[in-house]
Fold this sequence. Notes:
Layout: E1 2-7, E2 16-20, E3 26-29, H1 39-47, E4 58-60, H2 66-69, H3 72-77, E5 83-86, H4 88-116, H5 129-136, E6 139-141, E7 148-151, E8 154-160, E9 168-176, E10 179-185, E11 208-212, H6 226-240, E12 244-248, H7 254-267, E13 276-278, H8 281-291, H9 299-305, E14 317-319, H10 323-328, E15 336-340, H11 350-357, E16 364-367, H12 376-382, E17 386-389, E18 392-395, E19 399-402, H13 412-419, E20 429-433, H14 437-449, E21 455-456, E22 462-465, H15 466-473
Parallel strand pairs: 3-4, 4-5, 5-6, 10-11, 11-20, 12-15, 12-16, 13-14, 13-15, 16-19, 20-21
Antiparallel strand pairs: 1-2, 1-22, 2-3, 7-8, 8-9, 9-10, 17-18
Helix pairs in contact: 4-8, 6-7
Amino acid sequence: MRIAFHGAARTVTGSKHLITLQNDTQLLLDCGMFQGLSDELTDSLNSSFGFEADKVSYLLLSHAHIDHSGLIPKLVKEGFKGKIICTAATRDLAMLLLQDSADIQRSENQQHRTQRGKQDEVLEPLYTMEDVSKTAELFEVICFEEWVQLQEGVEVYYTNTGHIIGSAAITIRVTEEGQTKTLHFSGDVGRYRDVLLCPPQPFPKADFIIIESTYGNSLHENQFSTTDQLMKWIKHTCVEKQGKLIIPAFSVGRTQELLYFLNQLSLEKRLPEIPVIVDSPLSYETTQVVKKYPALFNERLQKVLEIDDDPFSFPGMRFTRHVEESMQLEHFHDPCIIIAASGMADAGRIRHHIKNNVEFERNTILLVGYCSPSSLGGQLIHGDKQVKINGQEYNVHAEIGVMRSMSAHGDADDLARYLSCQEAASVTTVFLVHGEYDVQQDFQKKLMLKGYEQVLIPEMHAVCGLNEIVAETA
């Protein structure tokens, strides 16, 4: 058995890890799209998997976020015909996100052709809506906490990670030549005191662990002060400055959290009577999916549901469903809150809102999650005084705010707690993925101090023979 790391290796995007068994069965953990890097690097990484799609036997999908699912239709386009194993909520969300991704690629392709002319080479979409339709036929739903046999000698077990609705960690039990080894892939680990979701579950004893490390060297702010922090930004921007509060937010997870906090402020009669616009058809659709799975909500939210049948809606809030509605917001100058995707502001309608509002001091752009340094959101957090949007430079005069309490990723303490169900001395190797290299190096030291003897940080496309590791450490 060997594993190759074809994404989220010393970076936080493009999750993709390929396990090859002795009988040539291939298990792919996630098939994510690279996002938020430079345009040239992103295009290069997304254009080639580093492996042959038609040789993959099973795709084990941890959750629906595009950096974990976004290249599945390309995998299908290039010949993958196996099963896509995931939870029901992940299937529902992934189909929405993949359809949206195909539509964005089609739109961007048309825009580039218009701008450059027919004589210039234009990058073709990675996949089309037809490829997404073919992908839909391959999903097979799995329940949490049930061992499922994929084939003789290969079993999988999914546990809830509390990252987004349906998110799972994946444990694989493989028997080869009479020996059984267990490998665990964390996917993205949520927070133990998440506002909406149940905490991450313990997972079976594992010989090898692949764990994300996004916040492996830092601690989050107390998220239960988020409501008050958000209220301060609303009052400061919309009441005192009479401006617009522009919030980039991922359609899945972050948008629902924001709506929940705003609903709380509304119930407490603290929210000013200003419009709250969620400018994203995708956010509307994903919010409906989230509502379908109340059993995955935590106890606190279950109690809220006893008195409020829709914790994501309140007076003054509306979703925009059509392009015309979105375009009209450019001419709306009264104080308001606009929430739009994407969270890193590297695609979607949020770029238009930032473009239209970033040059005015009365407005605030509030970043509420991780942004890669090269993304538009990352540039704003860094303090860049000029940003380029759709090929045009804009001066940054709007106030830039950051709220670090809303991350859906566990911090260093959460990750340590997540691993606490294991005996460090019994784990042969821990592989760190989905993190910036300097963060991973810090997390590596922390884990070794906790007794994990071998903690590796694989490079992109690195291949590791797990049997050789066992032999070396025996």
